[in-house]
Amino acid sequence: MDRPELGYLLSRLMREVMAREKPILDGAGLEMWDYAVLTALADSDAPTQAQLAATTGRDKTRLIGNLDRLETQGMIVRQADSADRRNRIVSLTAAGSRVLRSCREAIGAMEAELLAGLEPADRAAFERALTDLVVTDR
Amino acid sequence: MDRPELGYLLSRLMREVMAREKPILDGAGLEMWDYAVLTALADSDAPTQAQLAATTGRDKTRLIGNLDRLETQGMIVRQADSADRRNRIVSLTAAGSRVLRSCREAIGAMEAELLAGLEPADRAAFERALTDLVVTDR
DNA sequence: TATTGTTATACTCTATAACTATA
DNA sequence: TATAGTTATAGAGTATAACAATA
User: How far is the CA of A88 from the C1' of C23 (A)?
Assistant: First the structure.
């Protein structure tokens, strides 16, 4: 097959996706990485900051700015771990869950629109392949 | 369908592709964007720097560092345009073409390996969908 | 006056190394 | 001494404005 290289295609599509997400996240007062952190929090239960850094692939020092901002906005709380007081347990607040849910819906709709031009079978294969590639290359 | 968000999947896969490309480009003495510029030069014929900036999506001021480096390495030349002497026409040298071809081969092999785990039909659909999405969202 | 290529400046993002408090 | 979280510093990448040469 003769097509442009993966790096080119992926970076172009990534740019498009980010451009479409930006207004959604702006409306919620979230930066891109803030949203990634919220998403990770919804899945894993009460992680320490170190665990959160590991699951998001974000450096622990860079995570701090995101957490500070999210905490100021009342979307997360940081609590001391009574078992090991060096740890700080991060968790979503009700407000954080609400914002996250609304962003997820908007982003889901955006993605549906973005993929709407594909043949249904191609779209399913695309999503399946993309998921497989990311899982197997961990 | 319930899968991780596109932004997450694409950024993960993009990171993986870049990690696999890096040793190839390092071996050729190329940075990521240098390679993108070489690729663009192979397709479009004798562009000015402004045209090259437009086709790569790179800002004209940021392009300059790439061109300086590539010219120092003898992979491209910049020639004055006799028709409009404000323009500088950029073109690949024989050495540049050689390096580009060898990188393309290595990257093609890397991509084949990366995609090898997919069902053949899924792989074809994935490549088709990715190409369609990038073309239609221009 | 407008445009091409260039340089300069400031701003963001990232990487690294220290520092504190706990263990 | 080792670890979790934090802060500080320097570096890379980026955006913006200004500049010289040419149209």
Answer: 14
